[in-house]
Design brief:
Layout (H helix, E strand, L loop, with lengths): L2 H11 L20 H15 L16 H13 L2
Helix pairs in contact: 1-2, 1-3
Length: about 80
């Protein structure tokens, strides 16, 4: 399973919205509150064996699942 499909699969666990795509906005479309978002990020860290630095200014720019994909790819590529 590729990175995109893993993100979509995990995102579906933390939202009640059945319409999940890479362009879905985390707060607007998926209705993730801060707790759900934190749990989602931890699940992604576990799945990809990475650490997402929440103090990184680029994290503040994350709005969609595509943005999350970019962060994960950047972290994996820097290993």
């Amino acid at each position: 399973m590729d990175i995109e499909n893993k993100i979509l699969t995990i995102a579906k666990l933390y939202t009640k919205n059945p319409e999940v795509s890479m362009i879905s906005e985390i707060k607007e479309d998926l209705k993730m509150d801060s707790l759900s978002l934190t749990e989602f990020l931890v699940a992604l860290e576990d799945e990809f064996e990475i650490e997402i630095d929440i103090d990184d200014p680029s994290i503040d720019e994350v709005k969609s699942l595509r943005d999350i994909w970019l962060v994960i790819v950047r972290i994996i590529d820097s290993k």
